[in-house]
Structures are given as C-alpha cells and as structure tokens.
Amino acid sequence: MDDVTEPPTIDLKGRRILAVDDDRINLRIIGGILRHEGYEIAEASSGEQALEVYAAFKPNLVLLDVMMPGIDGFTTCRTLKKTYGDKCAPVIFVTAKSEADDVVMGFDAGGVDYLAKPFRPKEVVARIRTHLSNQQLVEQQKDLVAQLSKANLAKDRFLGMCAHDLRNPLSSIRGLAELMDEDAIGVLTGEQKEIIRTIHAASQSMLQLVNELLDVATIEAGHLKLNKAATSIAELVERSVHLSRMEAAKKSTRIEMVRTEKDPIVEVDRDKMKQVVDNLISNAVKYSPKGSVITVIVHSDADAAGFAVRDNGPGIPDNERHKLFKDYGRLSSIPTGGEKSTGLGLAICRKIVEAHNGTIGYSNIGGSGAEFFVSLPLPK
Amino acid sequence: MNFTGSIMLVDDEAHIRKFISLLLRHLGISRIYEAPNGSEAIELFKKVRPDLVMLDVNMPVMDGLETLKALKEVDENCVVVMLTSLANRQTIDTAVNLGAANYIRKDAPPEEIGRALAETIDSCFEDAEPGEEPK
Which of B19, B58, B106 sits opposite A176 (nearest CB)? Predict the structure, then answer.
C-alpha cells in the first residue's frame, strides 16, 4: 500500500521520568538536566518510595540508583518488572564508575542500560533520548498493529458479507441465464439469445471476481483449512476437463487428456485442488487462439505426481514471468475471447499448492505455447 | 434424468427457488413443491410427502439443520439433500450425521448441480424408482 499515513515524528517533550536516588544532590543535578530537555520529572529517595511514586506517576522511563538504604536498586527493578510485566517502563541503572559487576547484575535484574556517576550531562541526555525514542516507537508499533488487525477484521467481515449477499444472487442470475440459453422456458429469438448470453457472461465474471477476492481473503487470514483425502489425480483432472469442455467449445478449442498407465493417488483437499486444475485449464482456454488444442497431462515418478496443462497460446514473455503467481499479477497477455481476469487466479493456485507441500511452475514450450505444471508429494 | 418422483425445495431466497426449480423442470422433473422457510417446509412435507427434499442450510428463524431434524422426526427415511453456498465442512458433517443424504453447492453452474442431484438419486433410489409404476 502506498498511501498509509506516516507515523508521527517522535516528540519526546513532556515524557515522564522517575529519578530514584538516596542522594538529594544527585537528584537535583539530574532533575536539572532533564527538566531543561522538556521532560517531566518525579523524584523518589528510596526503593520503597519509588514503587509508590511509580504507581501514581506512571513514568515512561526510570533512572534507578543501585546503592540505597532499604531495598536496593536491583530489588526495586525486579519488583517493578514483576508488577507491571511487559508494560513496565525501561529502567536505567545509575551506578558508581568502575563497578563492572553492578552493570551485569543490572542487566540481569531487567535494566536496559546504565549511567555512571559522576554524570556527564551530554551522555545522560543522549542515552535517555535513545531509550525514550525506542520505547515510543514500540508503543506506536503496538498501536499500529492493533489498528491494522481491527481494519483487517472489518475487511474480513465485509468479504464475508459479499460471500453470502453477492454470491447467491449472482449464481442465480448466472444459472437462470444459462437455463434460458438452453431453451428451458422456450425457444428464444436470436436477439434474446444474444442478450441472455451477455447476462450470463457478465454475471459469470462478477461471480468469479467475488470468489477470487474471497479466496484471497480466506487464505490471507490463515483460514485455508485442508480436508485431505486420498484422491486419484487422473480422476480429479478428468472431471475438470469434462466441465471445461463446454467453455472451450465456445472458442472451438479442444481439450485432450493424456494419462499414464499408473493411477497416482495423492492426499489432497479435492475441492481446493479441483480449483487449481479448473484455473489452469480455464487460463489455457482464455489465452489460446480460437480453434487450438489444450493438452492436460497426468504424470508421476517415484516420489511425486501431478499434472501439466499445455496450450498453444503466446506463452509468457520472459520479463513478465516474475509476476506470475503473485497477487493481482496481471500480465500483458489479453484473453482471446474478451474474457475477464482479476490477476488473482494463479496466486490462489500457488497458495493452495504450497499448502499441500507441492510446487507449481511454468515453462515456455519453444515458442509454441505455455505449460503450467503442478507436482505433489506422494504419500510415503 | 429419469427421476419421476417429486421434490420439495426449501430456501428463503426466492431467486434460488426460481433458479433451482427451473433447473429441475429442465431436467424433466415436474412435481416440484416450494417452501420459503423451515416451518412451512414441515407442514408442506406432511401434506405432500415428497420423495426428495432440497434444503437450504442458512435460513433465518429455523435453519436447515433444525428443519432437517424436524423432517427426520416426521419421516426418518426421507431423503434430504442440503443446499449450501460456501461449503462449510463442519455444517455438512453435522447434516450428514443427522441423516442428510448429500449436499449440493447451489452456487455451482446448472450442469454441476444436475450431476450432483443425479448422483444422489442414483445412490438413494437404487432399487425402486419412487413414483414409478411397478413393472
């Protein structure tokens, strides 16, 4: 997507910092530096007080002295992490220079960084700015993710509505038109036939569009559930070939099926795999010149079986091959009978085949057409 | 199709009833009854005793599964084919467990619907064609 609103630039003014130190002078120094930067500061002079102030002040960052009477900095930090979990503000420990062990223990206790005393104001400001920015980015990202999932849910709901409220009437329109074309309510005049065929073709392409959008939505939402069953590839392919012949006959295109003596059996979701076969055959019909021959081949070897669809079409130009199998990857090829294309069909095929751990691919056959093939693992 | 029995078609959407009934007539089935909802379907079923019921799954008030249960209570041997649009495996399994003979995607092209119906009729009425005069 090109026009998503850019996240706002990071403005850290007014961010809240809790400074904890039993040494009042230290607190005054650090408070001075940070207020100057536009942060809001709260102070606590012990671990116990820090826990209380934290609850009321809800800081974006905590500066925590390690050595304090009462509970020390590490314990305070662990308590904060335990109480607030993921939502706990980042903690930066303040420690005397040279106490390398403190640094390690600080990280163990859940600190994100440390500052050595005596302070160098520039270092304090830079480190705090880094952590506050990081934290703000994380928050923004969380917000964005939440907004996006909400938007995605709305999209899914909308598409669900399309499913029921558009698909059913569209299939009725298409079915009624087809029946009238077959003279189910009496013989039609030439002009009536032409009109009814227009209605049929228009409803057919709308239905296909709605179906493909729905498929993409379902697959993207991770709802592609496979109901696998042992299936004969030859039988599956034969069914699709049979049903596609009518469509092909309109363009005087013939579909021939070539099968080996073997009858490979694969574990597939029949409805979904039939969709793949249908799609590849219908593409072949769509892009082949009128009167050509489409060959559907069932093949198998030791550990894989599948099928291939060959056509006499123009093939796919090399510079467009990367677009095949991608969402909305429409190519420059134009259907030879004015059919419609959403550019989603092959992307859906790829997703279905990959969900079966299979491969789908394409090759040009020496200037005389295209071949799409699907290969599926044989059950061991 | 040489099915001479009667079929009751239950769907809340008028255009679906129009489409399927025209398809049935086109396939040579002349005795077609229609009901727009579950409760009318049960009343009509009791009156006309159709040989086969084509029953929509998604209907307001009394859905297809409830209607199926009620029909099976009236006649446990009645042949019911569920009409679905998006095939929902779970619903279909439930329907089959409740005694449905098959399911048909009503968003399929006429030829496919006809074929699915013929398969069901072949498997459910192997021995004697209902409504057929004994030879």
Answer: B19
**Contacting residues of B for A207, CB less than 8 Å apart:** 107
Do residues A16 and A57 touch, judged by C-beta distance below 8 A? Answer: yes
pLDDT tens per residue across span A60-113: 999 999 988 889 999 999 999 999 988 899 999 988 755 677 788 888 888 999
List chain A residues with CB under 8 Å of B57. none
Q: CB B26 to CB A167 under 8 A?
A: no
Per-residue pLDDT band at A342 (split at 50, 70, 90)? low
Q: What is the pLDDT of residues A247-302, one digit of tens each?
A: 788 888 889 988 877 888 899 998 889 989 998 998 888 888 888 889 999 988 88
| H-helix or E-strand spanning residue B83 | strand B79-84
pTM: 0.59
Contact call for B110 and A175, based on CB within 8 A:
yes
Which chain B residues touch A164 with a CB distance below 8 Å?
58, 85-86
Q: What is the distance in angstroms between the Cα of A151 and the nearest Cα belonging to chain B?
A: 24
- From B74's Cα to the closest Cα of chain A, the distance in A is 30
Cβ <8 Å between B111 and A185: no
User: Which residues 6+ apart lie within 8 Å of A229 measured at CB?
Assistant: A267, A268, A269, A270
Least CB–CB distance from B16: residue in A168, A179, A214: A168
Residues of chain B whose beta carbon is less than 8 angstroms from a beta carbon of chain A are 13, 15-16, 18-19, 22-23, 25-26, 58, 85-87, 89, 106-113
Residue contact A167–B107, C-beta within 8 A: yes
